[in-house]
Amino acid sequence: MGWLFLIAAGCVEIIFALSLKYNQGFTKLVPSIVTALSGTGSFYLLMLALKTLPLGTAYAVWTGMGAVGVAIISIFLFKESVEIYRLLSIMLVIIGIAGLKLTDSY
């Protein structure tokens, strides 16, 4: 169950990070509400995941999911670079996340 909470936390973390772009310093009401709710939700789900998963693994996977998710979505939403080194770097983070999951004894 911890891994399900962690995956959900990572997905909500992506929403949180993307909403930061849209709230423009908390001057836009709806994006600011989304930021507050998704940030709170992401931390709550991470907290639930930490009841059964090791801290180091869970935190690394959570931040990695957020980083990779935002990087990939930003390519499409904000026309960010698709340079090969950027894509390879994203792939390295994904490999690291997979490695942490594969070596987790829970």
Features:
single chain, 106 residues, mainly alpha, 4 helices, 80% helix, 0% strand, flat
Give a verbal description of the structure.
This protein is 80% helix and 0% strand. The chain has 106 residues and is mainly alpha-helical. It has one domain. The longest helix has 23 residues, at 55-77. The model has no long low-confidence stretch (mean pLDDT 95).
- Helical percentage: over 70%
Radius of gyration: 15 Å
Unreliable stretches (pLDDT < 50, length at least 5) are none
Shape descriptor reads: flat
Proportion in β-strands: under 5%
Order of helices and strands: HHHH
Query: What does the average pLDDT come to?
Result: 95
Largest sheet: none
Short description:
By secondary structure, the chain is mainly alpha-helical. It contains 4 helices and no strands. Helices cover 80% and strands 0% of the residues.
Give me the secondary-structure topology.
Blueprint (H helix, E strand, L loop, with lengths): L1 H22 L5 H21 L5 H23 L6 H19 L4
